[in-house]
Prior knowledge:
With 270 residues, the protein is mainly α. It has helices at residues 2-5, 11-33, 39-62, 70-95, 107-124, 131-159, 163-177, 182-200, 207-228, 233-236, 238-254. It has 11 helices and no strands. This is PrsW family glutamic-type intramembrane protease.
Amino acid sequence: MRDHLRFYQHRWFKVWIALIALSFSLIAMMQAAGNQALLPAAFFYGAAAGPLALLLAIHDRIHIATSVPPMTLMGMFLFGGGVALLLGGYFDALFISARNSTSILRVGWIEEPAKLVPPLAVALTGRHLTKAAGVALGLSCATGFAIMESMAYAWKSLANHDGAVGAGTVLLLRGLSTPFSHLVWTGLVCAVAFGAWQVRSRAVVTLPVVAAFVVAATLHSLSDGLLVLDIPGPVRLLFLAVAVASYWLFHRATRDLKPVPTPAPEPSHA
Protein backbone atom coordinates (compact mmCIF):
# COMPACT_ATOMS: atom_id res chain seq x y z
CA MET A 1 0.00 0.00 0.00
CA ARG A 2 2.83 2.37 0.86
CA ASP A 3 4.34 1.73 -2.57
CA HIS A 4 1.00 2.50 -4.27
CA LEU A 5 0.69 5.79 -2.40
CA ARG A 6 4.09 6.80 -3.74
CA PHE A 7 2.95 6.43 -7.36
CA TYR A 8 4.55 9.79 -8.20
CA GLN A 9 7.97 8.18 -7.76
CA HIS A 10 7.39 5.55 -10.42
CA ARG A 11 8.70 5.83 -13.98
CA TRP A 12 5.25 5.46 -15.52
CA PHE A 13 3.95 8.53 -13.68
CA LYS A 14 6.96 10.63 -14.66
CA VAL A 15 6.54 9.60 -18.31
CA TRP A 16 2.83 10.43 -18.23
CA ILE A 17 3.43 13.88 -16.71
CA ALA A 18 6.28 14.62 -19.14
CA LEU A 19 4.24 13.73 -22.24
CA ILE A 20 1.16 15.64 -21.07
CA ALA A 21 3.32 18.68 -20.28
CA LEU A 22 5.00 18.47 -23.69
CA SER A 23 1.64 18.19 -25.45
CA PHE A 24 0.16 21.24 -23.76
CA SER A 25 3.43 23.17 -24.18
CA LEU A 26 3.23 22.59 -27.93
CA ILE A 27 -0.41 23.70 -27.93
CA ALA A 28 0.50 26.83 -25.98
CA MET A 29 3.38 27.57 -28.36
CA MET A 30 1.05 27.07 -31.34
CA GLN A 31 -1.47 29.48 -29.80
CA ALA A 32 1.21 32.07 -29.11
CA ALA A 33 3.09 31.81 -32.43
CA GLY A 34 0.19 30.80 -34.66
CA ASN A 35 2.21 27.88 -36.03
CA GLN A 36 -0.33 25.20 -36.98
CA ALA A 37 2.49 22.80 -37.93
CA LEU A 38 2.93 22.01 -34.22
CA LEU A 39 -0.55 20.48 -33.86
CA PRO A 40 0.26 16.93 -35.08
CA ALA A 41 3.11 16.65 -32.58
CA ALA A 42 0.96 18.09 -29.78
CA PHE A 43 -1.81 15.61 -30.55
CA PHE A 44 0.59 12.66 -30.77
CA TYR A 45 2.23 13.29 -27.41
CA GLY A 46 -1.14 13.89 -25.75
CA ALA A 47 -2.61 10.71 -27.23
CA ALA A 48 0.46 8.63 -26.32
CA ALA A 49 0.78 9.76 -22.68
CA GLY A 50 -1.70 7.38 -21.06
CA PRO A 51 -1.05 4.24 -23.14
CA LEU A 52 2.75 4.53 -22.92
CA ALA A 53 2.58 5.13 -19.16
CA LEU A 54 0.55 1.94 -18.71
CA LEU A 55 2.93 -0.02 -20.95
CA LEU A 56 5.85 1.09 -18.82
CA ALA A 57 4.03 0.20 -15.59
CA ILE A 58 3.22 -3.29 -16.90
CA HIS A 59 6.77 -3.83 -18.14
CA ASP A 60 8.19 -2.79 -14.77
CA ARG A 61 5.92 -5.40 -13.18
CA ILE A 62 6.46 -8.40 -15.47
CA HIS A 63 9.14 -7.34 -18.02
CA ILE A 64 7.07 -8.43 -21.03
CA ALA A 65 9.03 -6.26 -23.48
CA THR A 66 11.95 -8.68 -23.22
CA SER A 67 9.84 -11.57 -24.54
CA VAL A 68 9.69 -10.28 -28.14
CA PRO A 69 12.42 -8.69 -30.32
CA PRO A 70 12.20 -4.87 -30.21
CA MET A 71 11.70 -4.55 -33.97
CA THR A 72 8.76 -6.96 -33.82
CA LEU A 73 7.13 -4.88 -31.11
CA MET A 74 7.77 -1.72 -33.09
CA GLY A 75 6.20 -3.27 -36.17
CA MET A 76 3.19 -4.38 -34.14
CA PHE A 77 2.82 -0.87 -32.74
CA LEU A 78 3.09 0.94 -36.08
CA PHE A 79 1.82 -1.53 -38.67
CA GLY A 80 -0.37 -3.72 -36.48
CA GLY A 81 -2.06 -0.73 -34.88
CA GLY A 82 -2.65 0.77 -38.32
CA VAL A 83 -4.14 -2.45 -39.70
CA ALA A 84 -6.42 -2.71 -36.65
CA LEU A 85 -7.55 0.89 -37.15
CA LEU A 86 -8.13 0.25 -40.86
CA LEU A 87 -10.33 -2.77 -40.18
CA GLY A 88 -12.11 -1.23 -37.22
CA GLY A 89 -12.77 2.05 -39.02
CA TYR A 90 -14.16 0.31 -42.10
CA PHE A 91 -16.57 -1.95 -40.24
CA ASP A 92 -17.54 0.83 -37.81
CA ALA A 93 -18.67 2.85 -40.84
CA LEU A 94 -20.70 -0.11 -42.10
CA PHE A 95 -22.47 -1.07 -38.90
CA ILE A 96 -22.54 2.06 -36.71
CA SER A 97 -25.19 4.66 -37.58
CA ALA A 98 -25.56 8.16 -36.14
CA ARG A 99 -29.33 7.82 -36.61
CA ASN A 100 -29.41 4.72 -34.40
CA SER A 101 -27.74 5.61 -31.11
CA THR A 102 -27.88 2.06 -29.77
CA SER A 103 -25.69 0.87 -32.67
CA ILE A 104 -22.75 2.09 -30.55
CA LEU A 105 -23.16 -1.17 -28.62
CA ARG A 106 -21.77 -2.99 -31.67
CA VAL A 107 -18.39 -1.24 -31.46
CA GLY A 108 -16.80 -3.75 -29.09
CA TRP A 109 -17.72 -6.62 -31.39
CA ILE A 110 -16.05 -4.80 -34.28
CA GLU A 111 -12.92 -3.22 -32.84
CA GLU A 112 -11.85 -6.07 -30.54
CA PRO A 113 -11.57 -8.57 -33.44
CA ALA A 114 -9.78 -5.89 -35.48
CA LYS A 115 -7.13 -5.46 -32.79
CA LEU A 116 -6.63 -9.22 -32.56
CA VAL A 117 -5.91 -9.73 -36.26
CA PRO A 118 -2.22 -8.60 -36.17
CA PRO A 119 -1.25 -10.68 -33.07
CA LEU A 120 -3.13 -13.66 -34.50
CA ALA A 121 -1.21 -13.30 -37.79
CA VAL A 122 2.05 -13.59 -35.82
CA ALA A 123 0.74 -16.56 -33.82
CA LEU A 124 -0.20 -18.43 -37.01
CA THR A 125 3.46 -18.33 -38.08
CA GLY A 126 4.31 -20.40 -35.02
CA ARG A 127 6.61 -17.73 -33.60
CA HIS A 128 6.38 -16.05 -30.19
CA LEU A 129 3.83 -18.57 -28.91
CA THR A 130 4.32 -17.73 -25.25
CA LYS A 131 1.94 -15.97 -22.93
CA ALA A 132 4.38 -13.14 -22.19
CA ALA A 133 5.03 -12.60 -25.90
CA GLY A 134 1.30 -12.60 -26.67
CA VAL A 135 0.60 -9.97 -24.04
CA ALA A 136 3.44 -7.82 -25.36
CA LEU A 137 2.19 -8.14 -28.96
CA GLY A 138 -1.42 -7.44 -28.01
CA LEU A 139 -0.57 -4.40 -25.91
CA SER A 140 1.68 -3.01 -28.66
CA CYS A 141 -1.06 -3.34 -31.28
CA ALA A 142 -3.70 -1.87 -28.97
CA THR A 143 -1.39 1.04 -28.12
CA GLY A 144 -0.93 1.93 -31.78
CA PHE A 145 -4.68 1.67 -32.32
CA ALA A 146 -5.54 3.76 -29.23
CA ILE A 147 -3.06 6.54 -30.02
CA MET A 148 -4.23 6.95 -33.60
CA GLU A 149 -7.89 6.79 -32.60
CA SER A 150 -7.36 9.45 -29.92
CA MET A 151 -5.63 11.69 -32.46
CA ALA A 152 -8.63 11.26 -34.74
CA TYR A 153 -10.93 12.40 -31.93
CA ALA A 154 -8.71 15.42 -31.34
CA TRP A 155 -8.88 16.44 -35.01
CA LYS A 156 -12.67 15.92 -34.92
CA SER A 157 -12.87 18.21 -31.89
CA LEU A 158 -10.80 20.80 -33.73
CA ALA A 159 -13.09 20.56 -36.76
CA ASN A 160 -16.05 21.21 -34.45
CA HIS A 161 -14.48 24.57 -33.59
CA ASP A 162 -13.53 23.57 -30.04
CA GLY A 163 -10.06 24.99 -30.59
CA ALA A 164 -6.65 23.48 -29.89
CA VAL A 165 -7.15 23.69 -26.12
CA GLY A 166 -10.45 21.82 -26.41
CA ALA A 167 -8.77 19.15 -28.51
CA GLY A 168 -5.99 18.89 -25.93
CA THR A 169 -8.59 18.39 -23.22
CA VAL A 170 -10.11 15.56 -25.25
CA LEU A 171 -6.67 13.93 -25.44
CA LEU A 172 -6.15 14.33 -21.71
CA LEU A 173 -9.47 12.65 -20.91
CA ARG A 174 -8.89 9.86 -23.41
CA GLY A 175 -5.37 9.42 -22.05
CA LEU A 176 -6.92 8.67 -18.67
CA SER A 177 -9.39 6.15 -20.09
CA THR A 178 -7.72 4.30 -22.99
CA PRO A 179 -5.10 2.54 -20.82
CA PHE A 180 -7.96 0.93 -18.90
CA SER A 181 -9.96 0.13 -22.01
CA HIS A 182 -8.33 -0.63 -25.37
CA LEU A 183 -5.04 -1.87 -23.93
CA VAL A 184 -6.38 -4.13 -21.19
CA TRP A 185 -9.18 -5.58 -23.32
CA THR A 186 -6.75 -6.72 -26.00
CA GLY A 187 -4.17 -7.69 -23.38
CA LEU A 188 -6.75 -9.85 -21.60
CA VAL A 189 -7.68 -11.82 -24.71
CA CYS A 190 -4.03 -12.25 -25.75
CA ALA A 191 -3.05 -13.41 -22.26
CA VAL A 192 -5.69 -16.14 -22.31
CA ALA A 193 -5.16 -17.08 -25.97
CA PHE A 194 -1.37 -17.19 -26.02
CA GLY A 195 -1.37 -18.95 -22.64
CA ALA A 196 -3.44 -21.74 -24.20
CA TRP A 197 -1.40 -21.72 -27.40
CA GLN A 198 1.86 -21.95 -25.46
CA VAL A 199 0.69 -25.28 -24.01
CA ARG A 200 -0.47 -26.61 -27.40
CA SER A 201 2.38 -25.08 -29.45
CA ARG A 202 -0.12 -23.82 -32.00
CA ALA A 203 -2.98 -21.35 -32.34
CA VAL A 204 -6.33 -23.07 -31.73
CA VAL A 205 -9.81 -21.90 -30.71
CA THR A 206 -10.67 -23.01 -27.18
CA LEU A 207 -13.57 -22.24 -24.86
CA PRO A 208 -11.45 -20.00 -22.56
CA VAL A 209 -10.25 -18.00 -25.57
CA VAL A 210 -13.81 -17.49 -26.81
CA ALA A 211 -14.96 -16.57 -23.29
CA ALA A 212 -12.15 -14.00 -22.91
CA PHE A 213 -13.08 -12.44 -26.25
CA VAL A 214 -16.77 -12.25 -25.33
CA VAL A 215 -15.90 -10.58 -22.02
CA ALA A 216 -13.59 -8.05 -23.70
CA ALA A 217 -16.08 -7.20 -26.46
CA THR A 218 -18.92 -6.85 -23.94
CA LEU A 219 -16.88 -4.56 -21.69
CA HIS A 220 -15.88 -2.49 -24.73
CA SER A 221 -19.43 -2.03 -25.94
CA LEU A 222 -20.70 -1.36 -22.42
CA SER A 223 -18.03 1.30 -21.90
CA ASP A 224 -18.89 3.06 -25.17
CA GLY A 225 -22.61 2.83 -24.47
CA LEU A 226 -22.24 4.44 -21.03
CA LEU A 227 -20.31 7.33 -22.58
CA VAL A 228 -22.45 7.92 -25.68
CA LEU A 229 -26.05 6.91 -24.95
CA ASP A 230 -28.50 9.38 -23.44
CA ILE A 231 -28.64 8.00 -19.91
CA PRO A 232 -28.85 9.62 -16.45
CA GLY A 233 -25.62 11.02 -15.02
CA PRO A 234 -25.35 8.62 -12.05
CA VAL A 235 -25.71 5.64 -14.38
CA ARG A 236 -22.98 7.08 -16.63
CA LEU A 237 -20.57 6.82 -13.68
CA LEU A 238 -20.70 3.04 -14.13
CA PHE A 239 -18.08 3.72 -16.82
CA LEU A 240 -15.56 3.91 -13.98
CA ALA A 241 -16.68 0.50 -12.68
CA VAL A 242 -16.21 -0.97 -16.17
CA ALA A 243 -12.68 0.48 -16.34
CA VAL A 244 -11.77 -0.94 -12.92
CA ALA A 245 -13.24 -4.35 -13.79
CA SER A 246 -11.38 -4.36 -17.12
CA TYR A 247 -8.01 -3.70 -15.51
CA TRP A 248 -8.70 -6.16 -12.69
CA LEU A 249 -9.44 -8.96 -15.18
CA PHE A 250 -6.29 -8.15 -17.14
CA HIS A 251 -4.21 -8.11 -13.95
CA ARG A 252 -5.57 -11.51 -12.89
CA ALA A 253 -4.92 -12.95 -16.34
CA THR A 254 -1.26 -11.86 -16.21
CA ARG A 255 -0.43 -12.34 -12.52
CA ASP A 256 1.34 -15.64 -13.22
CA LEU A 257 3.86 -13.89 -15.48
CA LYS A 258 7.11 -13.30 -13.67
CA PRO A 259 9.92 -10.89 -14.50
CA VAL A 260 12.76 -12.47 -16.46
CA PRO A 261 15.78 -12.42 -14.16
CA THR A 262 18.73 -10.43 -15.45
CA PRO A 263 21.90 -12.54 -15.38
CA ALA A 264 24.60 -11.20 -13.14
CA PRO A 265 27.69 -9.95 -14.98
CA GLU A 266 30.62 -12.30 -14.89
CA PRO A 267 33.49 -11.06 -12.72
CA SER A 268 36.39 -9.74 -14.69
CA HIS A 269 39.77 -11.36 -14.20
CA ALA A 270 42.74 -9.11 -14.04
